[in-house]
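Form 7-S
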Amino acid sequence: MKPIKPKALKSSDKVCIVAPASPTLTQAYYERGKLAIERMGFEVTAGKYVHDKYLLFAGNAKKRADDINRAFQDSSVRAIICSRGGTGTSHILPYIDFSIIKKNPKIFVGYSDITALQIAIFNETGLVTFYGPMVSTDFGKGIARFTKDNLLAVLTQTADTLELKNPADKEILTVCKGKAEGPLMGGCLSIAAATLGTEHEMDTKGKILFFEDVDEKPHRIDRYLTQLTLSGKLQEVNGIILGTFTRCEYLKRDAYEKYGVTLMDIIRDRIAQLGIPCIFGLQFGHITKKLTIPIGAHAALDATKGRVIIEPAVR
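Output:
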């Protein structure tokens, strides 16, 4: 499917906050996040049910989906940003009106559990979405300048390519040398793997996959990567970009710690054998200083030199 680029973000545009997954439990983070976005020069509104609570979720699935459908349909809204991730995003997929999204393409930002919706949106509409910072999780906790600057660059730059560069103190490691090009696809590894076998299964053919995760130990990362391999998903990609995998190493109290196996050991075992250009350590996802990755936008990966360059993701 040919990617659809949303319109670039401009000063004074209206931004709508939605909650596709879990509710914000610390209201102060939400309020600070909303204020931070307003101070950047944007008008901020919110979905009707963004503060609802039901079990682990921000309201029932239909209400959460309704907020998203309305935000896309509202012609005054130029961008949509999620309040936080958490769990439950996949519940809302049957209630999302993808025809509305396709007719009203606009910027949509989130990460973590939001991966399920972002993959589905691209599958159904071709709309480029953005794996980037959220209201309560990031803006509400004092967003890093690095994170904010990169987000704005990705959401506003329409003419020139942009290199996704780590902070100076964060190294990118080469897992497999080589170069690759293709549309970016991925997000949170465990969520992306969970799409397999569903109506909204992730399409990896010819893509550059990007993955990261949080609180998943090496044996679980091994399980997800093996699942992607057994399903044939990894073998058909052009390149792989791996993030930092926050809190994903074994601790002394973990049963597998005595084996002395690291996350990188697992990654090299699962990925190197494929011979696909791959890097490890690009900064995105569950970290403070993060890059915004446009899902569906065209990218060029030089795994030998640890460089990622993206074409403009907005128009």
